[in-house]
Amino acid sequence: MNCNEVMNTAYEFEGNEPPSIFTQLRIQLHLLHCSRCAGEIARLKSARNLMRESFFPAVPEGLEERIMRSIGLEEPETDHEWYPEIAGVSFRGWVVTGLIILVSLSTSFLGMDFSKVADHWGSSFLLPVGITIGGVVSAYGAIFIGSHLKELSHRFNLH
Q: Is the pLDDT of residue 87 over 60?
């Protein structure tokens, strides 16, 4: 067996059912001649034993009581901690941005020779325009409401 086969077999069968006696004998013969593989397998066995036995330290006595006491000593949250700002934009910033989007979408057709476009395309042009405006406003409203749900429910007394 070469080093790769020995290590693959050791990783595969360590902790599971052992390989056949013939495979174990071949591994032992290889380990007699290869000090690198012998050291690697020894480290693997010690790491597995460490993980099985003493990986997690014992919990000190009275830890649960100390944690519960410290939780009881914490101060209650203030109103400002209830409503964190989402991505650094305040509630007022969201509203102003939404109004700007709504006004810009609805007034964008007053310029840019809209009458020529409307005359050329007719009413078939209004359907995609309406869907675009409705989709953008609806998506923005959904994101705004979803990210400020606690604040809006508190503001409108919907607890």
A: no
Q: What are phi and psi of 86, to 5 degrees?
A: -90, 120
Three-class secondary structure of residue 99 per DSSP: helix
Q: Would the CA dihedral through 37, 43, 44, 46 be positive or negative?
A: positive
Contacts of 41 (CB under 8 A, 6+ apart): 6, 7, 10, 31
- In the three-class reduction of DSSP (H, G, I as helix; E, B as strand; rest coil), residue 72 is classed as helix
The pLDDT confidence band at residue 89, using thresholds 50, 70 and 90, is: low
DSSP string of 132-149, one letter each residue: HHHHHHHHHHHHHHHHTH
Token look-up 């380990």 returns 31
Instruction: Check: CB of residue 7 under 8 Å from CB of residue 37.
Output: yes
Give the integer Cα–Cα distance in Å for 70 and 17: 47
Residues 6+ positions from 153 with CB-CB distance below 8 Å: 159
97 touches 139 (CB < 8 A)? no
Question: pTM of the predicted model, to two decimals?
Answer: 0.38
Tokens of residue 11, six digits:
């990783």
